[in-house]
Specification:
By secondary structure, the protein is mostly beta strands. Helices cover 5% and strands 33% of the residues. It holds the Pfam family Pentapeptide_4.
Length: 204
Amino acid sequence: MKKLKINTSLEPMDEWTYESYVSDYIFENVCIEQNLDNVTIDGCKFSKCQFKDCSFSFMECMDIIFDHCEFENVHFNQCSLSRVHFISCRISGMEFSQSLMQDTLFQLCKGHYCDFGGSTFKDCMFDINDLTGSGFVQCDFKKTSFDKCILNSTEWFNTKLKELDFSSCEIENIAVSSDKLTGVVVNSSQALEFVKLLGIVVRD
């Protein structure tokens, strides 16, 4: 992943003031409850912030850190995220549909039932997240990794799993398209899950 380009002398901002371009600010313990469509955010850090009932449609985010933030009913639709880090965030139920994510990191996040449908991931990392029940339908993955993630009951329909490595993850009750399994990497016990998906009966 590419290194973040965060300004080392960020200015504090204690509330959100609507602007079409926001750069080089740090937001701490701020609650944001308004739509921020068509906004560009560059080189900012959000620490222990709350986002409630927000729409971030068509937003462009570059070099952003979300640290210990909580997102409730938040929609990142058709957004561009480049070098964005979500660290120890609560993102359950978030919608990231039809978005482009490049060099983006999700680490130590709780994200049950997130919707990543139709999104493209390039050089992204999912590191030790709980993504139970989330949807990755019709997604495109390029050089993206999943390490020690909980992916139980996730859906991957019409998504090519080639070169995705799930060997360190939990994938119980995962739902995939049988014709998109070529090239996926799993461990020996996980292989039985995929065999069942193909309708093959294994007898001891």
